[in-house]
Amino acid sequence: MRNSARRRGIDPSFVDEILRLDQEYRSALAAVETAKADKNRLSAEIGKAADKAAAARELKPQIDALTQTIAQHEERARALAPDAEESPLRALLTNTPNVLDESVPDGRDAESNAVVRSWGVPRAFSFAPKPHYEIGEALDILDFERAAKLSGSRFAVLKGAGARLSRAVAQFFLDRAAERGYVEISPPVLVTRETMWSTGQLTKFSDAMFRDEDSGMFMIPTAEVPLTALHGNEILDAESLPRRFAAFTPCFRKEAGAAGKDTRGLIRLHQFDKVELVWLTRPEASFDALEQLTAHAAQLLEELELPHRVMALCAGDMGFNGAKTYDIEVWLPSAQVYREISSCSNCTDFQSRRAGIRFRREPKAKPELVHTLNGSGLAIGRTLVAILDNYQQADGSVVVPEALRRYTGFDRIG
Fold this sequence. Notes:
Strand order of the largest sheet: 1-11-12-13-16-10-9-4
Helix content: 25-40%
Number of domains: 2
Number of helices: 13
Structural class: alpha+beta
Shape: elongated
Strand content: 15-25%
Radius of gyration: 28 Å
C-alpha cells in the first residue's frame, strides 16, 4: 500500500496512521475483555465467600473501578471502530485508494500515459475542419442556446436528425453488447448513499455528484454504480461467473473540477448519455477480462471507422477505484488531438469488498471476493462529437457511418 501510494504521488504516511489507530482500537477491545474477566473473577470470589456481604463490601470499590474502566475502553473502541460513522480510522480507510497493479506505468500525470496500440489513419481534409458545435448548430441538430435557457450552462438540446443519430448510436452499442454476451439492465438512476459508497464514489474527491437534499438520493455519475452494486451483499455461484452487464442511462456530473475546460459543445456536460459495461469475475481472470472489455469498447470505434488509440494510464493519472486502467482516445480533426471516449478499469476486489459481493468455488467453500471491472461502451455525446468531426463534408453536411445507417434510416445529415 505504501509503494502504491508513492507511485500515485500520495504521501504514504496515512498507512502508519491507519496502523496506529487500528492498534489503538484493538488495544481498547482487549482492555475491555481483560477488565470484564477481572470483574467476573471478583464477582465469582464474592459468590464463593463464606460471608458474601463482607466480601461484597471489600471488593465493591475494585468492581466499580473495573466497571468504569470497561465503559471508558468501550467508548474508545466505539469511536475508533472501522464501521463507526465518525471514526477517524473509517475516514482514513474510506479515502484510501486501490492498490495499483505492478504493470501500471510509472509517471506523475497524463504526459506519462503509454500508447498501447493505435487504429486507423486520420482523414486528410481538403478544407479546414470545423468543431462539432459549429457543425451541429449550422445543421440545426444541436441547440446550446435554448439548452442554456432551460437549464444553464453545460447542457445541450439535440434536435431532429441529431436526436435520431444519438438514439441510433445507443442502439448500435447495446446490440453489440448483447452479441458479446452482456445482459442488458435498465437500472434506477437515483441511488442511495450506501450504493454510492459501496462502489467507491463517495470520498474526499466526490464533489462532482448531484444529490437530492430532501431524500438524500444521488443521481448516478455513471451506470457503473448500480450495475456493480446490483449483487451487493450476495454470494454468487462460481459457475455463474463472469457476469457481464450493459446499461444505457443518463449520467449526471457537476464537473466541479473542470472549470474552463471544454466549455463549448458536448464534451463535458452536466447531463449526458452513456452505455456502460460492467464485469463481475473470478480474481484470477480479471486482468484477461480487462483486455476483453477494452477490446469490446475499441471494436465499436473500429466499426464506426473512427481513428483511435488505447492508452495505459500511468500511476499518477489513475482513478481512485482502479488497479489498472486503459483509456480509449478518439481522433478529433478539428482540434488535431485525441480525446478520451472510454475508460476501462479493473477495480480488483476494491468495490466488491465495500459492496460485499462474493462467490463460492464449491458449494461448501469459503466465500471469496469477486473482482469488478467497468468501461464506457461508449459515451454517446463524445461519439457524436467524433462522428461530426470526422465525417463532416466541405458543403457542411455530415455523412452517417455505414454501421449506423440501419438505425438512422438516412446516410447523410444536410
